[in-house]
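Transcriptional regulator structure dump, as promised
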Amino acid sequence: MRLPKNFETSVFVLLILATQQDHAPLKSTRLSELLEVSDSSLKKTLRKLVVADLITSNASKDGGFTLNQAVTTITLADVLLAVEDQQLLDYQPSQLTTRLFRNPEHIEQSESLIQATLKQGEAALTDALGQLVLADLLEANAFQTGVVDWRE
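structure tokens r here:
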């Protein structure tokens, strides 16, 4: 399994917004400059974070993106589930099994066992990622009022 490329970007977007001085909104262009990613690809990621209700967007002269939830409640699992377009572990068995083995009942049992095990693995991954809140990645007191003016 490979994490989506925008997972790390999303984590940093949320950390930047959490530490923004007075939690003032940041424009996507400024975020893309800070993260050194294209503004168009970042906007797709930001949209996913908005849909997941992790950030809000205000399209005005002084608007931009702000956190919609506290970093003390947002977990790595929340971020991954926000940016992942499909289930985390997507397995579709091929027809190889039916070409190699002849017992259809056993094949079905084996494929069900694989699916159940992958589902458990996905749940375990989500649970583990759910244990780490983004606030744990920041220095103490860095996010209560924001300590960095990222707009400069």
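The chain has a mean pLDDT of 91.
lmk if u need the other ones
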